TrEMBL record, chain A:
Protein species of origin: Jiangella asiatica
Entries under SUPFAM superfamilies matching the protein: Periplasmic binding protein-like II
UniProt-recorded name of the protein: Extracellular solute-binding protein
Gene3D superfamilies assigned to the protein according to its UniProt record, in alphabetical order: Periplasmic binding protein-like II (3.40.190.10)
InterPro entries: Bact_solute-bd_prot1, SBP
TrEMBL record, chain B:
Keywords of this entry: Cell membrane, Membrane, Transmembrane, Transmembrane helix, Transport
GO biological process: transmembrane transport
Membrane-protein topology: Multi-pass membrane protein
UniProt biased composition (Basic and acidic residues): 1-18
Cellular component aspect of the GO annotation: plasma membrane
One protein family per Pfam: BPD_transp_1
Region feature (Disordered): 1-33
InterPro entries: ABC_transporter_permease (IPR051393), MetI-like (IPR000515), MetI-like_sf (IPR035906)
Protein name according to UniProt: Sugar ABC transporter permease
UniProt subcellular location: Cell membrane
From TrEMBL, chain C:
Family membership noted in the UniProt record: Belongs to the binding-protein-dependent transport system permease family.
Lineage: Bacteria, Bacillati, Actinomycetota, Actinomycetes, Jiangellales
Species for this entry: Jiangella asiatica
GO biological process: transmembrane transport
Annotated PROSITE patterns: ABC_TM1
Entry protein name: Carbohydrate ABC transporter permease
Amino acid sequence: MTTTGWRQRAQRARISTGCAIAGLFIAGCTAPGASTGGDDDGATSLTVWVDSTRTPGVERYLEEHPDVDIRMTTIPSDPGYVLTQISLANQADDGWPDVVFLNTPEDVASLAAPPFDFAAPLDELVDDEITDGFVEGSLSGCTFGDTLYCLRNDIGQTVLWYNQALMQEFGYEVPQTWSDYGALGERVAAEHPGYIIGGLNGKWGAGVYFESSGCPTRDVIDLTTVRIDTSDPGCVRAAELLDPLLANGSVSALSPSDPAFAQIGQENRILMLPAASWYGEHRFKAAYESPAGEMAAAPMPTWDGEDVPYSGSVGGGAFVVSRHAEDMDAAVDFATWMTTNVDHQSEQPTYPAFAEAAEAWGAARAADPFYAEDPFPVMKDQAPLIRDTFGWVRYANEWNNIFNETVVAAAESPEPLLEAVEEWGSRLTQAAEATDYEVAR
Amino acid sequence: MTDTETAGRRPARADRQGRRPASGAESTVEPPSKRRRRLAPYFFVAPYALFLVGFGIAPALYGLYTSLFTDSLGAGTEFAPLGNWGEVLTDYRLVDSARNVATYVALWLPSMLMLIFAIALVLHARPGRFAAAMRFVYYIPGAITGSAAALLWLFMVSPQVSPFSPLLDLLGVENATEAVSANTPLILALMGIAIHAGGWILIVYAALAALPRDVLEAAVIDGASSWQVAMRVKLPMVSRYAALILIATFAAGTQVFVEPTVLATGVPGQISSTWSINQLAYYYATQQGDFGKAAALSLALLLVGLVVALLVIYRTKFYRIDRGLS
Amino acid sequence: MAVPATRHDHPPSRRAAESARRAAGRSLRLGFLLACAIFFGLPVTWLLLAATKTQTSIFSDHPLSVGSFGNIAQGWSNLLTFNDGELVGWIWNSLYYAGSSVVIAVFLSVPAGYALAKYDFAGRKALLVLTLIGMIIPTAALVLPLYLQMNALGLLGTPASVILPLAFYPFAVYLCYVYCTTSLPDSLLEAARVDGASEATLFFRIVLPLSKPVIGMIFFFSFVHAWTNFFLPFVMLSDDRTFNLQVGLMMLLQSTDAINAEGGFSALPIHQPEAALAALVAVAPVLVAFVFAQRYLTASDVSGAEKG
């Protein structure tokens, strides 16, 4: 580490050590670095918080911008860390970062609203040329009412992952519609029990089936209004699709973290899995160590009565600029660079939200022998197709938890799943109201 | 030593009723040794009292103060003595959290207390290297904390990969998802025992080891069996430790936080992030930035713990200065 | 306790029955202790073995099978790939924070616990009740007050903001209080006073040596309390280089797929075996401290005899 920021940090640590002892007797030790003011006059100074995956990007930014003095802190991706630190800084009226990376981008719904009031509106500060360069729809999560509050770093559009080798061996066609998918599930259960074609748990079930179907459970209208309606046809058809598949075991209700699920992956018993674009690289390849040359991505199946293969969404981060930033232009420039710089974004582990960067990202992976065929064209087609009912809300955490407590818990019961889905909806309404939303139907 | 003096200093009945022996009763001309003895305790407790006020009482009072202000969306901060308390106590999640905690405490507390004393007494019946090794083994699970513990406990409750798989099979658990969601209080109670029992075993054992030998030997010579010695002699002698353990474990149980959080880290979304009352308090502070509500709920939890603690203290005369051993 | 010698005069038949009964009791006790040892010992045994395995063998092999010990060294160097070996810095930070706060905690709590147990003074009960409150107050109530306090003192982000609140450890005061009331005979103190010992002499020459067991306990429990503390560094420190091991490990592990299957995107070679190794690294100092504390326990047998 040779940048100014790093050296300053080391210096800060030394000062702090002295303070620990002195602090016992004198209350006069100040914490250096709590404020954002620069040491050298004239130089631009920024405090940025990023997770460890983003640190190489910050270093690259520093190389390209020697005039900017960056104090970088690596933050845990723990949900709650950023919110806790920001609200504490609010109380102390000091110590905000100028730019912060959100691993759970839903946090922006809290950060933009009172009592946090942290996220700066970006419409006036980011050129339309730049916002137009993002994948269509990818900034909708950052937009509340008509105001843009963050820049998207990466997106988690879902695709239909499948094992091409197994599908050929079993003589199956990749389904084009969800009806075909359901029919194939019945065949798999009868002909190859133990193999799965999907997962219901957590963000998968809610984010893949129900979101791609347009079940409104987090349809953001503005910062204080949200639409929740689990009697919507979008919810009904997803529940009806899943009922038989859960009963016959071709869709698993196991948590993605469950070692039992990892075993299914490692034993190569995942025939298909509708899941986020990052699943290929970070699950099949890294965690399940699937054999090379077998996995491929197909477009999401289409729902009856529609001709567009809508995606759900699982994951994706965002950058937020502070309202309190002293040098707003520098802060916005940094956030913009991190999200749109093609060289930097093409090396990101997940699908970039900026369209041009996504092309470069895809090109860099086209020749990967892990895949049976290059999955990028499918990912690219699905990227703008994330259903617009999927917004970022302050109850995102409960959204996942309650889904598991109601819908997943009912997976093995003979009752229709729809009852549990309605329960999910009514408890979501409570959760939304408890986080200062008005709920529309 | 003068008996009268000790009697006067001992907080006798008068003291328990809240009256102190009149200070005028102390002699007007005080010998230096007596004065030193009167002043010494203040020197002994002064540094601690400073920290107690600075990092315990003052923050707690400030917490109480923040709990009296509401911080609502758009409306700004305003003084509303019952606003946070009212909202917290009627929160739709509280009933579930309270039921979860009650089940957990009912499963965890009695079984762990019995286990602690059973193990400590059995170990103390034959002290030696074996007993020392056992205390070490019993303690280890409590030392494993944090994110890495999430991995450990996730694997412990997964029949496919767990060394406890025979036990899990017996319970009919097929996978971690089910273990965590369908048997949450039981799994957490087992986890809680594994994590907390070792430290208390150590404390009770140390208490037993520090008992005067002559009393125990006298009991043995009187022909008491080791069971009788344990129940009739050793246990009553460590009753204050029992009181301390009851107070601390009851508070820890009602404030359970680590176990559900750790398991939920291992299997995200499978255990609600507001499963326990204390988690709900953390949720207010960390997810909603609402420290007033967090303080209100925490102080409500503190009250529950305090009521039980004072009951125990009153019943066991925990605060009495007692000269029983002299 | 040795087997009492006074029973040798029993008739042979009763003696045989007695010894059979004792043997049965002994094996019952042994069985109970070993069963408990399995319950408490299996998790850490698994953890030790998990660190020797690979990412796939941890799922596919028997949970109690042994992998390769070379994997431990490999795992360690894999852990060091995170932020240029920041892990080592966190270990030092943890030792520094925990070490400092333990010294202060012992210095504060031993005299306080002794005074509360053996002197009657104005404010004694108030102090006991306030200590009780300090002991059982949930931390969520203290997040904001402590943060604002440290901010007002200008200590935010410094080690002092972690060390000072950690040094306030009311449980240690109660531990010492209970020990002194239960195991410190008044006769001894009074005898010394009659001999003309001052209160300070009494404390340093008589109370401290006799309190070795409880000082060992306080040392140990306050070390564990400080070493495993997560909340204070999480709230007070915003520079990752100043994190302690607990917060640092959370950051490290959450950025990988080892414990975050829904979004650990780090390309670093850190998986489940590395996470198991990280757990062992975090546990090791506590176990070392335990072994030290055990020595004080055995010393107590001697002091117990002295009291006779």
